[in-house]
Amino acid sequence: MSRFNVFLHRTGERLALPKATRSLILVEIASDLEELFNHYIQQGLSEEEAAARAEEKVDMSDEALIELVRIHSDARTWTDRIARRTQPFWERFAMALIVLFFVTEWVIGTGLKPFAHLTGFIWPILVIFIALLTFFIVQMARFSDHSSPRRLRDSLATPLFLGAASLVVGFAGAGIELYRTLMRMAADPEHAAPLFANVVLDSTATLAVALLVALAAGIAWFILAGRVARLEDDVTRRFLEVK
Amino acid sequence: MEKFELETQNLARSCHESLILATLADGPRHGYQLALEIEDRSAGTFRFNHGTLYPILHKLESNGFIDGSWAEPAGKRKRRQYALTADGRKHLDRLTDAWTAFVDSLFSVIGRSEP
Fold it and tell me: Which of A108, B28, B77, B102 could form a disulfide with B83 if both were Cys (CB 3.0 to 4.6 A apart)?
């Protein structure tokens, strides 16, 4: 039993934070209390005086505690909170069903020729998809080779960036193709109708692929973020030696 | 380097941040060491209550200016140690420039008494 248990318990009760974060802060405070206590003992104070001085030095005002809670709450973004939430089976099943529905509907809706009508902008989108797939496989492998959670968390922005890049290419490509076709329609008004129909068809198909790649990026992020969050919780639990 | 100005409403906080970063520029320290060393080096002018110290340390860490790590010396409890990062060193340079400009401005108004 530490001589500062009562003080730490009181401080912990005032820290409105998740248990793991609160415990880490309390471990930090406890070690500083012990060091200050030893410092004051070396200065010639009695144990009671040293303990009282150490507690007085470390005691936090309500404002300081509120500030500490704010800092640690800000650090957890809404995306982090979503990722940390345990996904029930039905949610994962529904997500898989939605993806399957999208892909099936698209493939069947195009008469089993999903890539028949696409613009040249499909190539950068495919490159993004390959990059996403490679990144996802590499990251999943890093989970098993005990990479640091911090490094894994730092790389979480990559799938979101790739998803956003796919959307930008998809929408920008559709805009550029439309502009080109309008120029051709102005030059050749007789064939305006088929030209317009073709550009709408090709651009929509390309945009659909871009959206699917963005959806895949979102799912990849979701899976990776969840695993990183669980890994962080495991590391914290092991560190604190709590079950 | 981008120009950095001190917020006059938040001078105490900027002062604390500068003191912590400047002390960490000499090497990694534990929280209690920081407080005691700052008090010692300033001959008691800057007395740090740890209650004030933790929010500042954690804020500096979340901004990437310092890096906190856990050490477990043999036979002792786990201790958190802080080290200055490259971004922290840049921020300290900015703060130092800002403080110099601030003090110059202050003395240009109140005047500097001759010894």
Answer: B28
Residue A104 CB coordination number (10 Å): 10
**Gap between the Cα atoms of A15 and A62, Å rounded:** 10
**pLDDT tens digits, one per residue of A61-108:** 787 888 888 888 765 555 665 655 556 678 778 878 887 888 788 777
Contact A205, A162 (CB under 8 A): no
Half-sphere exposure of B94 (CA within 13 A, CB side): 15
What's the pLDDT tens digit per position in B20-44?
999 999 999 988 888 889 988 998 8
Rounded to whole angstroms, the Cα distance separating A58 from A36 reads 9
CB contact under 8 A, A35 and B55: no
Side chain identity at residue B91, one-letter code: H
pTM for the whole structure = 0.57
Q: Using a CB-CB distance cutoff of 8 angstroms, which residues of chain A are in contact with residue B80?
A: 27-28, 31
